[in-house]
Amino acid sequence: MLHLLGYQTLPFFIVRTLKLYIMRKILLGVFVFVAGFLMMSCNKNKQPVVDTAQIKADIQAIEDDFAKEVNDGKAENVTYYADDAVSFPNEDMPLKGKKAILDALKKDISKIPEGHRIAFTTNEVLVSSDGNQVVETASYILTDTRDIKVRSGNFISVFEKRGDKYVCVRDIATPDAPKAEN
User: Fold this and answer.
1) In the chain, where are the structural domains located?
2) pTM score
């Protein structure tokens, strides 16, 4: 090939060196192309990094807002639930839709004595790899005016990110102690 370029009069070792140089450049180019292709194909499946601690703090803030509205007696201001949420209350039929859930919440709020307060604590969050779904395990406590526990329990809520905020799409709760017999 080099003889076509006029290199036939060059000494043998120079021709050989030139051939090796050209082959090394071709091999280097092929190597760079293959390495670049492999790196690009590996990055396609990379999942975004989710900040579980931040998401847990976000969910706790949602729980705090929910507790504030309940403690203020304003169920109509609760933004916790998605419109298509389903709630599974203890010893009752499932409540389907935000309206049904908030209607039941209004009834529950009306039964809470004046000065009693509820608080929710997010214990753990299990976050999907893309950060769009969150399963929360949490607890609640209802205290009287002297800050003495009246009732407590645990619940699981499933949140879905809709737009830029999380909303509850499913929840289920259970008390620590059974209801008192009347």
Assistant:
1) 2-43, 52-175
2) 0.72
